Amino acid sequence: MATPLDPEMFDPLCPSDLSPFRFGDKWGGMVIRCLEGGPRRFSELRVPLRGVSAKALTASLRRLEASGLVRRSEQPGPPRRVEYALTALGRSMLGPIEAVCAWNREHWDELLDAREGVAHPD
Questions:
Q1: If you compute the radius of gyration of the chain from its CA atoms, what whole number of angstroms results?
Q2: H or E segment and range at residue 71
Q3: Quick check: bond before 96 cis, omega within 30?
Q4: Of 75, 82, 101, 17, which is closest to residue 43 (Cα–Cα)?
Q5: What is the mean pLDDT of residues 62-79?
Q6: Which of 37, 72, 97, 108 has the most CB atoms within 10 Å of its CB?
């Protein structure tokens, strides 16, 4: 059994739409980060992604699956068990995502100021 995901994995004050980079959709990069440690069930993903609706998370998972980044597997029998895991292609996204996260941390104040219309000298 995998270690539970940290409910505080993503800062709720950190709007993902502030980043100029996207991995699939608004939630795609965060879903990939959640799957970094191994397969997860939908309900497990909802813990750190508490700001996403079930409908939006389902759509994001489907897009990631259609792109070949995530694999959905279903184990038969009662109860039915569905898990999502990164494919090798999805795992190859972890490095670029970490680079984007580092860039976002370095330029966070500038991104916030730009959003608020504050000019910065170049």
A1: 16
A2: strand 70-75
A3: no
A4: 82
A5: 92
A6: 97
